[in-house]
Amino acid sequence: MKYFIYYSATGNGDFLASLYKEAGYEIVKVETEKPFGKVGFFKILKFGGRAMQNKREKN
User: I want to staple 20 with a disulfide (CB 3.0 to 4.6 A). Which of 4, 37, 42, 47 is the partner?
Assistant: First the structure.
């Protein structure tokens, strides 16, 4: 079984996931405990940088 695991802050990833589902992948969407709110350029930089540095959010 092939899996496509993703998170979508803007909803654009949902479209990509639908394409993978059609190709036979099992889809797993990651949800956050707290919503991020509106996603803008600076949030993308902030959270993208943290992801690349493998840092986690404080609870």
Answer: 4
